[in-house]
Amino acid sequence: MARPLRISYPGAFYHITSRGNEQKDIFKSNRDREKFLDYLESATRRYDAVIHAYCLMDNHYHLLLETPSGNLSRIMAHINSAYTLYFNSKRKRFGHLFQGRYKAILIEADEYAKELSRYIHLNPVRAKLAETPEQYEWSSYCYYIGRKKAPEWLKMDFILGYFGRELSEAKKNYKDFVGILINKQYESPLINVISSTILGTQGFIELIKDKYLSAQKEDRDVPALKTLSRKITIKDIFDEVDRIIKEDKKLSRNIKLYLSRRHTAERLDDIGRYFGIGGSGVCQAGRRISGQLEKDKPLAKTIKKIESNLTRMKV
User: Fold this and answer.
1) Order of strands, edge to edge, in the sheet holding 60-67?
2) Bridge-partner residues for 55, per DSSP?
3) What residues contact residue 121 under an 8 Å CB cut-off, 6+ apart?
4) CATH of 12-189, one of 3.40.640.10, 1.10.760.10, 3.90.209.20, 3.30.70.1290
5) DSSP tag of 135
6) What residue segments make up the domains of the chain, in order of their start?
7) Regarding predicted confidence, which is higher, 216 or 141?
C-alpha cells in the first residue's frame, strides 16, 4: 500500500482523524475520554501542539490541530501511542487500537478553520448522539459558547476571532453559526480535499507544493503528489461554469471571478484581464460572492457543485 503524504512545517493547521481498528470503539468509558484529553493537554505542554477544537466519538476522534514547531509526527505519536498503552494496559489486551495511521489533512486555516470547527462540533448531532451540540459532553463546543470554563490548553481565540471583537459577542455569533446547520442537509467542507491530503485554494496548494514538496516530486510511492501537480486553469473554470449556468450571464461572470481567484495561482491583475477589470475589481467581486454564500443557500450549493466537478478534474 502506498504511504500517505505527510506535509509538515511550522505553523501548519490540520484536520486530524483516527479510527478504531476494525471500526471498534476506542472509548468505552468516561474515564477513557478523560484520559485521552489528558494526552491532548500533555501534547500541548511537551510538544508545542495547539488544539483548536476536538470531538471524541465512540470509535474515532476529530482534532483541529496546529503545529507551531512543525512536528506533527511527534505530536501524534505521543497522543495515539500513549493512549493505546493506557487502553491496552487497563483491559489487559495487546495489539493495535487504531486502524492504521491517523489521517491528517493540511488545511488553509483562513479559508477553512471555522467551517471545520463547525463540522467537528456537529459530529454528535449527525450521528444522532445528541439533538444539539451543547448536549454532547465530549467536544470543545460547550467551551466555545461559554457553557463551561475552557481548559487552558484549548485555544479558541483564533476561530472566535472571526466572530467578533468582544468575547461574549463572538461566542454568541459562533453559536448562531453552528446552530444554523442543526438538522439541515449540508455538504462537508472536506468534499474539496485533494487526494486525501490538502484542503485550500489553488494558490495555497501551489504554495505548499512549491515550498515543501519540490524535493519529493519524483517519489512514485506517494500518489498524492501526482494529484497536487495538476492545475485547474481559468479555462477549466469558464467551461464548467458555462456548463452549469446557462442563462444568468451576470451570475456566471461573478462566479467565474470568484472561482478563478480561489482555485488558480494566477495573479489578480492577470485574472482581471479575462474580465476587463483590475486586480482590485477581482477582490471586490470575490468579496461580494463570499458575502452572499451564507445567505443564499442555492448559490452556495451551485458553487459547491462546480467546485466538486473542478476537483474531480484533478484526480
Assistant:
1) 50-56, 60-67, 12-19, 103-107, 198-199
2) 62, 139
3) 53, 55, 133, 139, 140, 141, 144, 178
4) 3.30.70.1290
5) G
6) 12-189, 232-315
7) 141
Cα distance between residue 165 and residue 154, in whole Å? 19
Q: In sequence order, which residues have a C-beta less than 8 Å from that of residue 111 and are 6 or more positions away? A: 199, 200, 201, 204
Tell me the per-residue pLDDT of 167-199, one tens digit each, with 9 for 90 and over: 999 999 999 999 999 988 888 888 888 877 899
Using CA atoms, how far apart are residues 217 and 209, in angstroms rounded to an integer? 9
pLDDT averaged over the chain? 87
Indicate the pTM of the whole model.
0.71
289's grid cell: 460572492
**Which residue type does 19 have?**
R
> What is the rounded end-to-end Cα distance, in angstroms, of the chain?
18
How far is the C-alpha of 93 from the C-alpha of 127, rounded, in Å?
28
Lowest mean pLDDT among 237-241, 282-286, 296-300: 282-286
pLDDT confidence of residue 1? 42
Average pLDDT over every residue of 262-282: 83
